[in-house]
């Protein structure tokens, strides 16, 4: 492409579009139609320049012009409670449902790894001795020891807030770092499973596995599921960067990234629930069966939320991404 010839041929259209956007009085019907047509043509011009003859100064000018025109054509909107309701009832569950082929295998494989590591720790005293000294291990696992007192060491409200913050940060890191070719997500997931396996193995070797499960299951089912969803989504985002499929890599990454950002917000709410359970239910005086039942009920409610509401939303065409009207305009680009 001869950039000078192209600019000379279309400069008048760009100037006319800029003139219409600056006009203070209300546009006539014909001028509105002209504005829309010029906006579409300028967006196409921008795409062609970006792909064939990139010029930073010209691209900057046209990008700003297209953005102003798009705002004038589509109008501005503010978020409302209806948007929040739509997100919670269709967008968020649909995004989790679409990502199920990533986070369900992630959950199964991670659980298997945690169980194998816990068995290895529980059946090998030399591994236990490498974790801590015998006196420290007894202090950890004895009745009323550190594993049990951990959940009641702080006031319930502050403990729940601390747990929620830590877990939300871990989930957000899985979602964000997935774009770095998946490797950071695998490491974060391994660290979580290792911490779980150490507690599982040490308490099992001390003959107090029932106590450990009574402390972990009430909140751990929902908490770990949220972490698995975040990890699976992060892995999916990373794989999109490696193999975007039929979509252009930039488009694929933008679509999956927006869905992942929405899932970060939704998972923060899920982890808030698990944090509340960990802060108020796990250390409570309720019988073990009652505490575990609360955890199982929360987990089943979450899975029903994903598979019932999410499946219904996906079948209705929901993807978890922004609506078509809210996305940036996209036009064909030259090969």
Q: Count the beta strands.
A: 0
Q: Characterize the overall form.
A: elongated
Report how far apart the termini are: 13 Å
Report the sheet with the most strands, covering strand number, pairing sense and barrel closure: none
The residue-averaged pLDDT reads: 84
How large is the radius of gyration? 27 Å
Structural class: mainly alpha
Name the helicity range: over 70%
User: Element order, helices and strands?
Assistant: HHHHHHHHHHHHH
Beta-strand portion reads: under 5%
Low-confidence stretches: 324-335
What is the helix tally?
13
Description:
The protein is mostly helical and 335 residues long. It is built from 13 helices and no strands. Helix 5 crosses helix 11. The chain is elongated and about 80 Å long. The two termini are 13 Å apart. The C terminus is likely disordered.
